[in-house]
Specification:
It is a single chain. The chain is mainly beta and 221 residues long. It has one domain (31-220): Immunoglobulin-like (Sandwich). The protein contains one helix and 13 strands. A hairpin with a 4-residue loop joins strand 7 and strand 8 (138-141). The longest helix is centred in the first third of the chain and has 26 residues, at 2-27. Bound molecules: beta-D-glucopyranose. Beta-D-glucopyranose is lined by residues 104, 110, 129, 141, 185, 198, 206, 209.
């Protein structure tokens, strides 16, 4: 009897550990957006303080030219409403510069969106890359990119800068339960008019601008 009970206990502990592990794995690469409409002014309205923060702090080894402790990193928070996805970025970056010729090499943040989450290996009409540098200059690429779809505001602070973005979503059904593909990136132009580091949220390769299959998941809650 005792042997039977201990066997049951071991099985139940093992099952709990396994399911906890599954939960952790399932949540890695999942970002949740709450419903709400912020004012896009680079100020942290009260509603943002209720949103979970996602860390954009994983270096891409192949493009890392500086000590990773000096690399620019960010937290991102998300909101949505009937027409827009909103992202608030708080970026830590000790030296701000937009001297590099390429937009993607300047101090900037990038949000990659696969609105239908069809995970295509090239960009389709529902896929786009939206970029905002620390001075508020907007740019982007991808079949689904249209500059009229993005609004943004930026502000510098003691530790770096803030970017608040609103992205008009055309292909996604903006309702609770909708999922999209998403990735977040911070470009760091450190001190040489070139990009010295990239920090990412989920997939640590420099390929999100051309392949949506490795994005994480965004859930509208
Ligand atoms: C990438 C660059 C790429 C650019 C194109 C950036 O996200 O990091 O390597 O050239 O996108 O838009």
């Amino acid at each position: 009897m005792i042997r039977f009970l201990s066997a049951c206990l071991i099985i139940s502990l093992a099952t709990t550990a396994w399911s906890q592990n599954q939960t952790t794995k399932a949540q890695k690469g999942v970002a949740v957006a709450k419903k709400g409409t912020p004012k896009v002014d680079a100020k942290i309205d009260g509603i943002w303080k209720t949103c979970p923060k996602y860390l954009v702090n994983q270096p891409i080894a192949e493009v890392l030219e500086i000590d990773p402790k000096d690399m620019a990193t960010a937290t991102v928070r998300l909101l949505w409403d009937d027409r827009y996805l909103y992202a608030l970025w708080v970026v830590k970056d000790s030296e701000l510069s937009a001297d590099a010729g390429d937009d993607w090499a300047q101090d900037s943040v990038e949000l990659f969106l696969d609105q239908r989450q069809d995970k295509s290996t090239s960009y389709d009409t529902d896929d786009a890359q939206y970029r905002v540098n620390f001075e508020g200059k907007m740019s982007g690429q991808g079949t689904g990119y249209d500059e009229v779809d993005i609004k943004a505001a930026t502000a510098k602070n003691k530790k770096g800068y803030i970017v608040e973005m609103a992205i008009r979503t055309h292909a996604a059904d903006m309702k609770v339960g909708t999922v999209m593909g998403v990735e977040f990136q911070v470009n760091d132009e450190h001190d040489r008019a070139q990009r010295d580091a990239i920090a990412k949220w989920f997939h640590t390769q420099d390929d999100s601008w051309q392949d949506t299959s490795t994005f994480g998941t965004l859930e509208l809650k």
